[in-house]
Specification:
Length: 80
């Protein structure tokens, strides 16, 4: 997945997230939708992390395609 594909995925996920946020504010969401929202947040974090890895590898003269999606536990506990 190249940077453009990662950004396209981020935009797609962010739009779905915003739809659910609007629905939550307007009329409320179901438990299933709340779980979907949480899953979207985690997946978005993973996508942003992958994009940051790719950019960092490129800046360091390394192959950006060697960047890998990290597991949710790693991404969600990242500080810094």
């Amino acid at each position: 997945m190249d940077d453009k594909e990662v950004l396209a995925q981020i935009n797609k996920l962010a739009e779905k997230e915003h739809q659910l946020f609007r629905k939550e504010a307007d009329e409320g969401v179901t438990d299933e939708e709340r779980a979907e929202l949480k899953a979207l947040e985690v997946t978005l974090d993973q996508c942003w992390d992958l994009l940051h890895q790719r950019r960092a590898r490129r800046a360091a003269g390394l192959d950006p395609d060697a960047a890998k999606v990290r597991d949710p536990q790693t991404v969600e506990k990242y500080i810094g």
